[in-house]
Amino acid sequence: MTKLKNCAIRNAVFLLPLVVFGAIAAPSQTRSTPNAQLASKELNARVDALLKKMTLEEKIGQTVQYSAGFATGPSASNLTYDELVAKGQVGSMLNVVGAERTNHYQHIAMEKSRLHIPILFGLDVIHGHRTIFPVPLAVAASWDPEAAETVARVAAEEARADGIAWVFSPMVDIARDPRWGRIIESNGEDPYLSSILARAWVKGYQRGDLSKPDSVAACVKHFAAYGAAIAGRDYNAVDMSELTLRQVYLKPYRAAVDAGVATVMTSFNSINGVPATANPFTLTQILRKEWRFDGFVVSDWGAVAELKNHAIGDGPTVARKALEAGTDMDMEGDLYGTVIAEQVRSGKIPESVVDEAVRRILRVKFALGLFDRPYANVGPAYTPTPQRREAARKVAGETMVLLKNDPVEGVGTLLPLTTKARKVALIGPMADDALDLLGAWTVAGNPKDVITLKSSLSERLGDKLLYAPGCGLLSGADENILKSVTFASAAKSDANEPVPDDNKTIEDAVETARKADVVILALGEPTNWMEGEAASRAHLGFTGNQEKLLEAVVATSKPVILVVLAGRPLQLKWASEHVPAILEAWSPGIEAGPAVADVLFGDVNPSGKLPSSFPRSVGQEPLYYAQTPTGRPAHGDLSRMPHDAAEKFVSRYMDEQNSALFPFGWGLSYTRFSYANPAVDRSEVPVREVADNHQPVTTVSVEVRNTGSVAGTEVVQLYLRNTEASVEQPLRELKGFTRITLAPGETKRVSFPLGFDELNFYSADLKKTVEPTTYDIWLGGSSLATAKTSLKIVE
Ligand code: BGC
Fold it and tell me: Ligand 1 centre and the CA of 72: distance in Å?
């Protein structure tokens, strides 16, 4: 994080560029045991010894998971958990929150069940447990693996203290369509960025040793390709070539497995006709055989039972298919516990299949030290500590993306805000909405811990601050949305209730704007239940009457800074044409107010970059930068240049540009960076050298200079294009990035290694390969990077 005000070095010129090497290495290729702890002989001997003592019912019990809390789908009903746990018929529970509640069931398991096998408690700890950080898509916008690791580490400490030893995170589904509400839980559209972050999340949760008292088992999800749901509609089918599956979608899961992730969750979707929860190709062939994953696989919520809806069999048949395919645990489906025993007894399922699933589950329980330390310490009610708040504020500061900061005539750029303005109007429904600033998917998060924008800005500005909510996030016209939102969030708060009579409140907001020198407009979408699961949208504009509010405030001719508070890319076309300054602040979590204020006032110089392309229009979706070429390319495919109006028989929309409004990797700073002298150490490399040697074969580098007057952090990005391959390759692909901080006038030479990991692609027969070709190479601050060099791979 860069403190502009404290910047000591101004206008210093560095004649000899410094070298930053290494950037971030790509995931490693081969490893015989991704998680040595789970493969340990001693641990497996304990597992086998216990397995020998178990009855068939007790074994099956380990494969059963029930929720004793809220539901995200159909629930198994009329169950008495105390009794089931005492009989050893439950191996894991979810949605049991707090040390007292987890201890309650754990005491039953440890004291009343015959074999005293501890329960493994799992929970959706998605972006923090009690200390809520920005949503994962925002964390991805930091392009900072250390930020992801911090979020995961703090979450692990807090979760474990509550008796939760297993978190259903990270979600690394490649998401290229913001209509899909779950994009907020993802690392965005790019397999390289997502793989780097996947490793960081796993590292933060598991800390290289599951037995530590404050590590938790991570669960990478949703395996596989859940993010490619047709038309962005949640739970929908996925249909894609195996080549794309391997080259794009599987990479981040693989990175998590290589990082030693202890568990994997299946996805709800089918993949090329075979539901992911009963898919032997992904669950056994790829995950177990190719990747040597030795943890266990849990189904998604009810996904085993829902196989009946996929029409691949009745209850017993689908349970057998799921178990045999490699789904070891049935989350809330209530099928493994009720139908598997009979199938084993009648010879339909070999008992060895059950044994293997149980072995995998017990391995994780032993590795976590649950047999030795089953209980949580019950302490006083927990609120986030100042240190954890500080961490949340720092991460949130890094996630903010300055989309636009054009000068206003007679005023200059609006950001960073100076304290010279006599009056500042803060307007908009997100300005003081604690629940929605927290972001989607926070089971144990508390809106009361959120510091809102209104509260932080009034602390900074005192009576210079004027405030008007302007309108609600939803309006009366959103009757159907309102029904599901109020239903779903009833348990937490009524904060989503719309402000009544938006026309009147918009008029008040306009009056407030007129009294001010500058307006900060805080708009977004109801993050709580209109984002995340089952929250697909066909429209991507601001919800309710916010667009009306935006237009009314802009019509006052006051200078407007738009702060967008939403977990997913929204369609900002009108705003981008009429508002001079736009800050994408996502769903920032409990430190929302302080973090946004830090950036608005320039205490933090924004450095976030988009992990996901922002569309001009919903009709462009799925929109992503790594498009493959067509035989009829349109001018401006990969740039912000408009199409040539006269172009007709090319691959384009007649009524919209092809390019993103704000492309992948985009993000401005309060300073400027220039890129010069891109170069490769060796411009030609023999193909055999690349193929035979999984070490870097050359280095590509570029000089980056801070040409502005304040210090700043830049995410330097490396993109490649293979210009002549046996299978057509994307127009650009991210293959490296690093964050560097430069004082004004400072220059650094930034280097990235290139080797097999960066240069390979899947051949038509699905083998990783390199071939003689030329790679075009670009380095820069976004996917529009222009500093160009090339590398030849020769015979
Ligand atoms: C979601 C998962 C989540 C699970 C448990 C499901 O509905 O798809 O991401 O981990 O519920 O709450």
Answer: 7
